[in-house]
Amino acid sequence: MFRKSKAYEIGKFFALPMEKNELAVFYLGVSGFIARSANQTVLFDPAGMLKDDEVKALKAANLLLYSIIIWTILAQAKLRLFSRQQMRP
Questions:
Q1: CA 39/CA 12 separation, integer angstroms
Q2: Scanning 8, 36, 78, 88, which has the fewest C-beta atoms within 10 Å of its C-beta?
Q3: What is d(CA 74, CA 45) in angstroms, rounded to the nearest whole number?
């Protein structure tokens, strides 16, 4: 399914002025989101949630976290891809 790019909104999110003790959150979809304070940015489960132009719109990421559910899904997808490639003549 095609979706509209969120690059512009992500750029605006990083342009928000942040004071000490404030936290801004940007929802990426499913379990993915960006949490940002005045000096730190954390990405939670961004796999498959960001297009190339959206990744370029990210100003910084100090920490990247994946939940076990997303990790398991990614691992299964990689195993299926590997299996298909091995079966080719």
A1: 16
A2: 88
A3: 11
Model pLDDT for residues 1-40, shown as the tens digit of each residue: 466 889 999 999 999 999 999 999 999 988 889 999 999 9
For residue 49, give the DSSP letter: T
* DSSP 8-state assignment for residue 80: H
**β-pairing, 24-29 with 41-44?**
unpaired
Spatial contact of 16 and 66, defined as CB atoms under 8 Å apart? no
Contact 29, 49 (CB under 8 A): yes
Gap between the Cα atoms of 18 and 8, Å rounded: 18
Tokens read off for 6: 């969120």
Better-scored residue on pLDDT, 48 or 79 = 48
Q: Residue 19 has which token pair?
A: 């004071």
